[in-house]
Design goal:
The structure is a homodimer of 228-residue chains. The first copy, chain A, is mainly alpha-helical. The first copy, chain A, has 2 domains: 3-65, Winged helix-like DNA-binding domain superfamily/Winged helix DNA-binding domain (Arc Repressor Mutant, subunit A), CATH 1.10.10; 70-211, Four Helix Bundle (Hemerythrin (Met), subunit A). Helix content of chain A is 71%, strand content 4%. The first copy, chain A, has 9 helices and 3 strands, in the order αβααββαααααα. The first copy, chain A, has helices spanning 3-16, 28-35, 39-51, 70-94, 97-115, 119-136, 140-161, 166-182, 186-211, and strands spanning 25-26, 55-58, 62-65. In chain A, strands 1-3-2 form a 3-stranded antiparallel sheet. In chain A, a hairpin with a 3-residue loop joins β2 and β3 (62-65). In chain A, α4 runs parallel beside α8 (166-182), α5 runs antiparallel to α8 (166-182) and α8 (166-182) runs antiparallel to α9. The radius of gyration of chain A is 19 Å and the shape is globular. The A-B interface holds A 1-2, 4-5, 43-44, 47-52, 59-60, 72, 75-76, 78-79, 82-83, 86, 89, 139-142, 145 and B 1-2, 4-5, 43-44, 47-52, 59-60, 72, 75-76, 78-79, 82-83, 86, 139-142, 145. The structure holds a DNA duplex (30 and 30 nucleotides).
DNA sequence: AGTTCTAATCTTGCATACAATTACTATATG
DNA sequence: CATATAGTAATTGTATGCAAGATTAGAACT
C-alpha cells in the first residue's frame, strides 16, 4: 500500500502512544528524516490527520498535536457520551447472540485486568468492550464515528483511568450497561452509557483544572496564560 | 490562505452542487488543469476530502465521489438522526433567547419558501434551520459533527425534498420540533427530531430502490454506464 | 532595559520530474 | 468468437528544487 497511508498510521500511533504530546510541533523535515522518506508523503499524512481532527494543521505555520481547551475537551466527551448512548440504544434494540458473546468476552477480560489492578491492560480491554458495543449497534457508519472519536479521546481517557479505584467503578458500570442492553431496555442502556462516558469527561476536566500551572501548563495552552 | 484549502472547498462545493455525481472519477490532472494549478495541491485537497469521508480515495486507483450502498446510506441517515436528536435534547435543556430567535427566524424563512413552493429556496432555509438547532445545543464540537454529516448527506436530501408536498410536511415537523425545544421537553424534542430526519432516510431508501434499473442504475455499482 | 524595526534563517507551499503501478488496446490463440 | 496475453498508454506515488511566508536574532532607538 502507499507510503503515505502507512505514515499516517505511524504518526497517529505515535501521537496516541504519547510520544508527541498535545502542543508538540510535527515538523515535516524531521518526520521525513525519521521515516526515511521525502516531505511529500509526510505532508499528505499530516493533512489527512488534520482533516480527521486528530492534529491541527495551521496554514503556513505547520502542524501541532491538537490542544483542546478544557471547554472543548468537555464538549468532546459530551459528544462521545451522546454517540455511545446512541450505540447502546440500538444495541439494546438489535442485539444478536454474536454481539452478545463479543461484549461478554470483552467484559470478562476487563474483569481480570481490573482484579489485577493492571490499568494499562484495562485500558486496552476497556477499548475492546466499548468497540463491541459500537459493533452491536449494527450500524457500521455510526460505529465508525464512534471509533474515530474514541481514538481522538484515548490520550485523555488513559490518564483518567489511572485514578484510584476508578477501575473497579468502571467495571461495575460496564456490568450495568451490559445488563440493560441484554434486557432490551433502550432507555436504560442509553442513560447508563451516557453517564459512564460523561463521568470520565467530568473527572478529566477536574484533573485538568487541578493540574493547571503544573508541568506543561503551557500545553493547555490558550494564548493567555493559565486557563479559567 | 493556502491554495490546497481553497481547492478543497471548491471541489467539495462542486460535489455538493452535483457537478460531480456519485461514482464519477476525480482525475488529478484534469482538476489541476481546471483550476490552473499543479497536481500537488489537488492531491492534498483530495486526500483531505477522503479523510473526511466525502470522497473515496483508493490507493493507486484514484479518487471517486463516494457511492454509498443503500444500506450504508440508511446507516448515515440513522446516524444523522441520532446526532440531531442529541442536539435537540441539549437545545431543549440549554435554550437561550439568542438561539431561540435564530431558530425562529430560520423557521419563518422556511415558511415563506414552503408557501411559495420554492423547493430550492426551502432546501437552503431548511439547512439554516437545522444549523440553528445544532448551534442551540451549545456544544460546538457536536455542532461541527452535525454540520459535517449534514453536508455529506446534502446531495441526497435535496433530491428528496423535491417530492410532492413533502415541503409542507417538513415545515409542520419543524414547528413541532421548535415547540418541544421551547417547552424544554428534551425527550420530545429528541424524538421529533429523530423521526424528522429518519423519515428522510427512509423515503430516500425507497426512492433509490424504486429507481433501481432507471437512470444511473450503474451509480450504485460498476463503472459501466456513461453518465453525463 | 525595553521596544521596534530589519535582516537572516527556517519552514511551508507549490511546481516539476521521474518512478511505479494500473488500465487499455491490439494481437494472437484455442 | 471469445479469451488470454503482451505491449503501450495513462495515472498515481514520491523526490527534489525553488519561491514565499513565518520565525528568530540582532541592532538601533527611545
Amino acid at each position: 500500500m502507499s507510503q503515505a497511508f502507512r505514515l499516517k498510521q505511524s504518526i497517529e500511533d505515535a501521537v496516541i502512544a504519547g510520544e508527541f504530546l498535545p502542543g508538540d510541533r510535527l515538523d515535516e523535515a524531521s518526520l521525513a528524516e525519521r521515516f526515511g522518506v521525502s516531505r511529500t508523503p509526510i505532508r499528505e499524512a499530516l493533512l489527512q490527520l488534520g482533516a480527521e481532527g486528530f492534529i491541527d494543521v495551521r496554514p503556513r505555520r505547520g502542524a501541532i498535536v491538537s490542544v483542546p481547551s478544557p471547554t472543548r475537551l468537555f464538549e468532546m466527551f459530551e459528544t462521545m457520551a451522546e454517540i455511545e448512548s446512541a450505540c447502546g440504544r440500538l444495541a439494546a434494540r438489535r442485539l444478536t447472540p454474536d454481539n452478545d458473546a463479543a461484549m461478554e468476552a470483552a467484559h470478562r477480560a476487563c474483569e481480570i485486568a481490573a482484579r489485577e489492578g493492571d490499568s494499562e491492560q484495562y485500558y486496552a480491554d476497556n477499548r475492546n468492550f466499548h468497540e463491541a458495543i459500537y459493533r452491536a449497534s449494527r450500524n457500521s457508519f455510526l460505529a465508525d464515528q464512534a471509533f474515530a472519536l474514541h481514538k481522538r479521546l484515548s490520550a485523555y481517557r488513559r490518564i483518567q483511568l489511572r485514578a484510584r479505584n476508578r477501575l473497579l467503578q468502571s467495571l461495575q458500570e460496564h456490568a450495568g450497561i451490559l445488563e440493560a442492553i441484554r434486557a432490551g431496555d433502550e432507555q436504560l442502556a442509553a442513560t447508563r452509557l451516557h453517564d459512564h462516558v460523561l463521568v470520565q469527561g467530568e473527572r478529566f476536566s477536574d484533573m485538568v483544572l487541578g493540574l493547571a500551572g503544573d508541568r506543561r501548563s503551557d500545553a493547555a495552552g490558550s494564548r493567555s496564560g493559565t486557563p479559567k
